[in-house]
């Protein structure tokens, strides 16, 4: 029972490292892009500096020339304000891009981790910590989930549980013989397989129950869980 826990811990640690590296890479790339963009944007006072230089170097005396310089100075101020707003827009877009990319990395790692976990479950079966069979009530407590079964399904599950406690594996004919009371030679393998199918249908989720009730080729049926967690009342 220790191996699955260790595997899950290693998977979580690997996922955390991948998320950390991914976020760090995203931050570095976007930070470099931000530095490049802000470094290449022209200075907001460049236009005003050119107008001031023109005013100093040229001998402008007429009213029209002075009016033109005033218009140019106002244009330079407007240009400076536009550049400030552009910088704010770029900063906000970079923040949004960083958040979206980080969210994509986290979701991608979550999907990969979930797929790995599902693969581990398919290989090792369901992690059942408690299986309690209450025959009088036709009820089964699987971990913390209470399930109601039919009489036939309860008989089948009880036979499988007793065999699992004893470390045995039952064929379909043996299951049918133990439930019906007939001799094993008089029982059909298909009848036991039908009881197993009805039990799986009664338990519900087909994927989960196929993992819980294993069919070993040429050997028989067995519950894929630790016999120590089974209790029959």
Automatic annotation (TrEMBL):
Superkingdom of origin: Bacteria
Source species of the chain: Jannaschia pagri
Name this protein carries in UniProt: OmpR/PhoB-type domain-containing protein
Spans through the membrane: 21-41, 88-114
Gene3D superfamilies: Winged helix-like DNA-binding domain superfamily/Winged helix DNA-binding domain
Keywords recorded for this protein, A-Z: Membrane, Transmembrane, Transmembrane helix
Alphabetical list of InterPro entries matching this protein: Sig_transdc_resp-reg_C-effctor (IPR016032), WH-like_DNA-bd_sf (IPR036388)
Signal peptide boundaries: none
């Amino acid at each position: 029972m220790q191996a699955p826990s260790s595997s899950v811990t290693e998977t979580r640690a690997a996922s955390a490292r991948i998320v950390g590296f991914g976020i760090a890479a995203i931050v570095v790339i976007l930070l470099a892009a931000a530095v490049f963009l802000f470094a290449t944007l022209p200075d907001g006072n460049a236009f005003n500096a050119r107008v001031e230089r023109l005013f100093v170097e040229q001998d402008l005396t007429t009213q029209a020339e002075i009016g033109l310089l005033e218009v140019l100075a106002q244009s330079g101020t407007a240009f400076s304000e536009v550049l400030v707003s552009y910088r704010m827009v770029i900063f906000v877009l970079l923040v949004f891009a960083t958040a979206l990319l980080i969210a994509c990395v986290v979701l991608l790692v979550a999907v990969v981790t979930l797929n790995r976990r599902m693969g581990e479950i398919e290989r090792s079966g369901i992690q059942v910590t408690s299986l309690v069979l209450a025959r009088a009530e036709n009820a089964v407590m699987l971990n913390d989930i209470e399930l109601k079964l039919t009489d036939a399904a309860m008989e089948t599950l009880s036979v499988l549980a007793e065999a699992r406690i004893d470390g045995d594996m039952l064929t379909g004919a043996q299951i049918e013989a133990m439930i019906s009371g007939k001799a094993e030679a008089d029982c059909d393998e298909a009848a036991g397989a039908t009881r197993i199918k009805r039990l799986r249908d009664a338990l519900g989720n087909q994927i989960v129950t196929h993992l819980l009730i294993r069919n070993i080729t040429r050997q028989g049926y067995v519950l894929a869980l630790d016999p120590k967690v089974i209790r029959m009342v």
